[in-house]
Amino acid sequence: MRRIIVHRKVSGSPRVPLAALSAALILAAGLVAAGEAVPPAAALKPPLRLEDTGLYADAATLAVDPRHLAFSPQYPLWTDGAAKRRWISLPPGTAIDGSDPEAWVFPVGTRLWKEFSFAGRPIETRYLERLADGRWLYAAYAWSADGREARLVSERGQRGAFPLGNGRSHTIPGISDCKACHQGGRSDVLGFSALQLSPDRDPGAVHGEPRRFAEVDLKELIARGLLVGHPPSHEAPRIAAASATERAALGYLHGNCGHCHNAAGPLRTVGLYLRYEAGSNVAPALASAVAHPVKRPAPGQSPEALMRIEPGHPDRSALIERAASRYPALQMPPLGTELIDEEALALLRRWVAEAEAPRQKAQLNEKGQIR
Amino acid sequence: MNGPLPLLVAAALLVPAVSLAQGTATSEQVRRGEYLVTIGSCHDCHTPLKTGPAGPEPDMSRALSGHPQDLPVKAPARLPEPWMAAASATLTAWSGPWGVSFAANLTPDPETGVLRDFTEEQFIQTLRTGRHQGQGRPILPPMPWPFIGRMTDEDLKAVFAYLRQVPAVRNKVPDPLPPAP
Q1: How many structural domains does chain A have?
Q2: Hey, where are the domains in chain B?
Q3: Nearest-CB residue to B149 (from A37, A184, A299)
Q4: What is the DSSP string of A203-269?
């Protein structure tokens, strides 16, 4: 099969709406569509309107309740260039248990919101709420065209929420897709964590923003007693790296890939660990990707990309090839994005190009994996 | 496709009983899995058809091993209106607006079986979410995951337990082909 050619041809062209086709085909085959693919798990249903989640102090002016805390993770998720605002609300008198810096435990009743805007206009707001039984409730709200109110989206998500050009558009994920990212590790909450809120913010972070006025960080959470049990040695966690480029690259992989590729979640069997863990001697991404053979090539993958990362050779590195593709069978991440993150790709390429063979060799020797 | 459908379905039901329970699966669980795989029509797409004396029938020597590697497919079918999809004579390769999909090898072959590094949890998630390994690429039509995914956890576990112990068939199913430009 002409694999590379096939891939190149497709990666630039509009994506075929697979789920829609699947549904269409099932109907065409004369079977009755069974409704949502995923049986509703939580008995508790999210409210139908965003304002009823309690985000706003005043629904008419959309003024956010001043008791909520705004925050921004230093290594944000790429969503095709969407601008994001995020808030957390802890029930009065409660605090987060931070004794394990890799998996904070949030009190029942914690609520988190994340608003996505394209071209200056809010498109969707995502919502998480910790239920009495410890599980998290997931919901997404789509904004009306006039930006006045947002209504609950079907469990199956919503296509065509905003045109991104080239026949592609932003998709509001269905609940099972939320969970593909949010339930891939030890904690459902991904961007409100010690590393993401570190006061020692990475100035080189891709799409990173300086902390905005009135946004909370780790230091403030501790000072206000909203985070308890946090080990004092971890007050300003920072990715240990050989260079500024490497620090930013590892941060990007942590924020955009680590929620699936980690040692705790279901995908541990792939053996690629892109989540940064404080205290590890060698960053898991370096140990599991650099000069590490690909476990299973994906459809359309170049036959030259034998390694996840081949030091000095971004063009022969599977990790780069998959981040640079939007062919559904090859692209990474496999969901949540329609457009290649060019800025991040440039950073990752620079990092792989700079990666030194001798240093990697030493690491290989350690693991006895020189081939 | 040349055989009348009821005949194919009847043929698909002639699954030889296998009972080589291994690991933690109980033989009752495996029997339940076998039953579900049979009535769930998995053989319909995952076991290639061959032509027997009475017409097309599932080739049980290749049971559940997916599209045969020795049957190359080079390009999607081009169909006149109003047709949308087409299948190979084996009923294991499917062409449509999604390109060409090939029924996966569900046998426990350590090198070519699609489930070779799936955990039970991932198997359940795969059928619930319609994503490869539960979190990866979208699974292509006509794999009917929206229906199969409605089985209970217990039933999906039984299907998995059964698939884990069917005879391994070494067959490297081709990668899906993208749609014609």
Answers
A1: 3
A2: 33-50+57-165
A3: A37
A4: TT-TT--PPPTTB--HHHHHHTTSEES--GGGSS-----SSHHHHHHHHHHHHHTTTTSSSSSGGGG
